Amino acid sequence: MSSALVSGKAQIENVYLPKSAILDRVVDEIDEVKTFFWHFENAVDQETFRRFKPGQFAQVSIYGAGEFPASLPPSPTEKETFFTVRRVGSVTAAMHALKPGQRFGVRGPYGNGFPMEDYHGKNLIFVAGGIGLIPLRSCIVYALDNRERYGKVQAFYGSRTPKDLMYVDLLKEWERASGFACHLTVDRGDETWKGNTGVVGSLFKKPGVTMELDNTIVFICGPPVMFRFVLKDLKNMGFEDRNMVSTLERYMKCGVGKCGHCCIGVAYVCSDGPVFTLEQIRKLGEEI
Amino acid sequence: MPLSAHKLTTCTFCGVGCGIYLESAGGAITGAYPSMSHPANQGRICVRGWHVHEVASSPDRLRKPLIRRNGALEPASWKDAYDFVAERLTAVKGKHGPEAIGFVTSPRCSNEEAYLLQRLARSVIGTNNVVHGLGLYRQTSIHVLRDMLGIPAATSSISELAKSDVIVVDGIDLGKQLPTIGGWVIRAKLAGAKLIATGNRGHRVAEHADHFLQIRPNTDVLLYGAMAKVVVDRGLMNVPFVQAHCRDYEKFLLAIQDFDVLWAAAECGVSPEAIEEAALTYARAKSAMILYSTGVEARGAEAVQAIVNLALLTGNVGKAGAGIMPLAEHNNLQGGCDMGMLPDFFPGYVPVENDAERRRLGALWHAELPAKPGVDLGAALGVNGGAIRALWLDQHDPLRRGAEVDAEMLAKLDFLVTQQMFTTEVSQYAHVMLPVVAFGEEQVTYTSTERRIQLTARAVEPAGGVVPAWLQIVRVAQRMGAAWEYESSAEVMAEIGQAVPAYAAASYENLSREYGRQWPCTIDRPLGAQILFESALPAKGFRFAAIERPAAPPRPPAEYPFVVVLGRSLYYWHRDVLVQHSETLKREYGMLLLDYPEGFVEINTEDAARMKIRDGARIRLVTAHGSGETLARLTGEVKSGSVFIPFFLQEMTRALTSGNHVEGDGQHPLFVRVETV
Amino acid sequence: MRARIIDRQDVPLLIDLLRRDHEVIAPFYGRGRDTAFDVVTDENRDQVQLHLPNPYYPPKRYVLPHMQRLMRYTLGAQPAVTSDGEARKRAIFGIRSCDVAGLFMLDRHFLGGEHVDVYYKNLRASLFLVNVVCTDREQDIDEDCFCVCADSGPAARENFDLQLMDLGEAIMVVAGSAAGEALFGEAIFRKATQEHVERRRAILAEVRKGFKKATSWYGATMRLISQGEVSDEAWEEVGRRCLECGGCSYVCPTCNCFTVTDRKVGEKEQEVERVRLWDSCALSGFTRMAGGHNPRKAVHDRRNRRFFRKLAHYYVQRQLSVICVGCGRCVNVCHGDIGMPNVVEILRRRSLEQGTR
């Protein structure tokens, strides 16, 4: 397998060539969502890749089906690499059909990622809805693994029903963790649900919840409707655009800023993003 | 031409027949782009044309003949395949007679294929059971134009639209079906022409209309009749033209009196002023063109008659910028009909019952030809299943098109042979499958909607020894004892020239000099004819149709307040097998199905708002016969009071009509109630 | 300016020189007024044209093919991925100044940024450009050309290897690179005199006057677009005339979007190729995501996108030019006459009506 093209004297890496990855094991998350634990076949590839930043993504090739962009939910501080993928189309369906031991392709990591070092010393608030927790998981775990570097850390997470909550085992850990306030809610409960009901924004007004305006970064990720309402709540509370950050999604083909599909206004979501502050989003020159 | 890697050819998607170049390298087609000089498109093509190279190089093509043995299709040699087909057809003919066999071409088949297949059917088998595009295409336009004009084809040319003062677009969504023509219409409008659009649905071109008459389903005859009456009442008819060139004017005048404008307006659902203004605009034009669909969105016979009446009334035939343009959505719908893939006509629109002509053709083909018109194959396979026992399908899959053919009927056939480029639904019933060459791999002719007979270029060799479809028909005929000798497709064309007077001088040599030729292309007029009747309008050669005022279509009862429109048009192309083999085309045409994966019906935005139905909501449609559930798609393009059901929702359609509904039957519209779920 | 002179009849000899080391692409006539870049062979070598309408199928396809294989891989337990990189020495004889400018923009896009596109690089690095200056009003210059507005022509200032200009009695050859200058040692070249230089100046001055679309209201349009001051109605007017064919992107020398697809190779079930194909933001599926959200669903939003990408300050600053070379192809290819000049005109008219100045 060649991952480089000889061009004259210098060897330039061919960014379009996927590198071989092996599927280790698969875990069912919620309906239509699975987590795939994997590692690069080549140890050097694995080593280089491990230096990824929270908020980055990779291009996943399922041989015979195609390629799609997948967020990186693990934190670089964790041991294993994995993707959490929802089945929405033919390529993700092909991935869902993979068995441990089978090979697929990965290229990356791509994107700018969250500047977690810039946020040292700040309070962090994570607001996620539904599968929006997948990209934010990386930052949350990173922050908790570097706890002393940050101020107050809290998370607000909600989904439609209890069955739609992502990473339930991890959520249980988070609820119990010290130095981290994790508030959960669902739009509609069921017989066994004993927690909050209501939209994510309703958690902001829960008794005992305080959200400092000063020196705080708010991470938001979720479906468009949730995003709009949460943003409205946060702005009403006084949070400024430059202190709120999100990760945007767009149809992608190359992942490296060449094919043009992911452009929003003046930015390529795959390389200028996918992480943008709300201030940057306003100035992109196109509605998201 | 000094070009080596580029070949001028014609696009084979739709009936415009745009001129395009194919670029090839390494034995494969690598690119496609428009010809600047081609008269029909002059540098423009649509998204399908831009992806022709992708389709042509698709790897999913069939490469070997397949014969079904022990239930499964297995590769076979060409020789075995031909033998098998010949032997089975002979056997069925022997046991059940020639009338038990039917032949169907796709409107995508070349002239050579169509000509040879109907010749096989008529001179070797002995049946007139031939048709193009089962059930989907109406022969009504052919009959009406033959009767009223003498020639069943477009009287003008596409580029003449630039000279029209007024253009009438009847019902067809040009932007989706024939975008290049849509472009000509938009540009004509920008240059000052007036645009009149009629029909039940809005569409991109209609957005530019000066007069958009969005009428209730099946009221077009009323509309055109009322318009004609306005013209007559105001004395705006072209009297010299009518008197010199038309028969039956008095009968027409008598009948038109009944098309009261106020009454028509109320039934059509438009204002009487709108009808009047449109009529006056049309009548006052120095030259006016009417465009209507003959295929995918075809009209009934009376609607076509009413359209021709208007054109004759105002003298809009035989001069620049004027005419009647029956539009073919498929690249060779026109050619297939010219070649006689019609149960009641031989090539050249000669009725099979015309003894003298039948004998002339019989002499050319060395056989006695059947005089009895063929059956309606769609009906024969749909209702009284037993009549047809063997079927030959040339690049046509009736199961994909939402036609009347049931899979069960196909399964019961004694013998089914298909010629296909890709495996599709019908393949599972085939006893023999013969792969065909792709676009760019053969030199054959297609006749566009403006009568332009064009030659395609052979840019690359067919992959894997696949044989052109026309040659396969020859081989089978030879196996059945016919003494056919065609060394090349050019020789087939030479014979066509003998069979069809309008093609008499359309040799490959003549066709390759410029951009094909528009028929009639005869020895004394080898350059073809851009505008029919331009040189000489026939004395009393045209005939008015006296249309009895039809009863207005019944209005919906309170219980079922919406009228159903069973539509093809807008969503027709995503089922097209060629579209499936281009990543981009598949994406573009399949998008609506991604948005509404279970299918959808379309409801007018305001109607939906009143019923509190949101886009994408689950709804139930209920008729007197049955009900079905699906998703709602809201659009302003659908007229208030109607529900548009795309043709591919076959189960839904069956449930709502319990199989009884005849499409386009104005007197028995289908009424439906919409419920939220 | 490193300039030489050759005789008119030596142009084929120049092409022969190039053919020693390159596959030479040159413009030829097709049917009617159709022209195309095609491979020069012994058979057609005498029919290379110096003056003819600019070939419609843009020469960007020599660095970004209409359809290009990126790699192949085998299915199975151990999928093996191989990439066949093309690196064939090619020379394009007769590329116009507008297309040269377009290539320069594509260079920035594919070779700049964080990653280098090796496929583009391979094709580009081995490409020798012989620019021909448009001087013939009847043949070279179309009524839809407006390179003088985009400042890309009629004579390219840079980014070519050689530039030919017809002075009438002889051809001036200017070297734009070391590779170009290296040819000057050949016998067909002789020194250029001051007279030749004067003649060149005079011809260019005359030619510039001949462009019919002499003004294109770029400056203010750029500002309106960059500041988000174009109304929805204006874009809807443009969108109504769009039949979503993608042609404008395909023929545009500066457009570079592509899509990628995997498909089987021939009959072998186990072998798959990944190809990239030209794509267009004019098409509704361009931004549609798998989950259903389509941020540019409406046609007028897509038209907005095209002209934003061509005229917004952000891009202009980086390129030091509008992202349009004034070749006029989008004018020719469009069903609804919404090529660049007409859209600029529509935006101008609308802003005057709105009073946005």
Describe the structure.
The complex is a heterotrimer of chains A (288), B (677) and C (357). Chain A has 288 residues and is α/β, with parallel strands linked by helices. Chain A is built from seven helices and 17 strands. Chain A folds into two domains: 19-110, Elongation Factor Tu (Ef-tu), domain 3, CATH 2.40.30.10; 123-247, Nucleotide-binding domain of ferredoxin-NADP reductase (FNR) module (Rossmann fold, 3-Layer(aba) Sandwich). Chain B is globular and about 65 Å long. In chain B, α3 runs parallel beside α17, α4 (140-148) packs parallel to α12 (301-313) and α10 (261-268) crosses α11. Chain B has 677 residues and is an alpha/beta fold. Chain B is built from 22 helices and 28 strands. In chain B, a hairpin with a 4-residue loop joins β25 (618-622) and β26 (627-635). Chain C is globular, with a radius of gyration of 22 Å. Chain C is α+β, with helices and mostly antiparallel strands. Chains in contact: A-C, B-C. At the B-C interface, β2, β3, α6 and α20 of B face β3, α9 and β11 of C.
Question: Strand order of the main beta sheet of chain A, please?
Answer: 12-11-10-9-13-14-17
- Mean pLDDT of chain A, as a whole number? 93
Low-confidence stretches of chain C: none
Q: Class by helix and strand content of chain A?
A: alpha/beta
Shape type of chain C: globular
* Main sheet: strand order of chain C: 3-2-6-7-8-9-1-10
Calculate Rg of chain A over CA atoms: 19 Å
Rounded to the nearest angstrom, the distance between the terminal CA atoms of chain A is: 40 Å
Determine the structural class of chain C based on helices, strands and strand pairing. alpha+beta
The total of helices of chain A stands at: 7
Number of strands of chain A: 17
Using the 3D structure, state the CATH architecture of the largest domain in chain A: 3-Layer(aba) Sandwich
Largest interface: B-C, 57 and 51 residues
CATH class of the largest domain in chain A: Alpha Beta
Number of strands of chain C: 12
Radius of gyration of chain C: 22 Å
Report helical residue fraction of chain A.
10-25%
Report strand % of chain C.
15-25%
CATH topology of the largest domain in chain A: Rossmann fold
Shape of chain A: globular
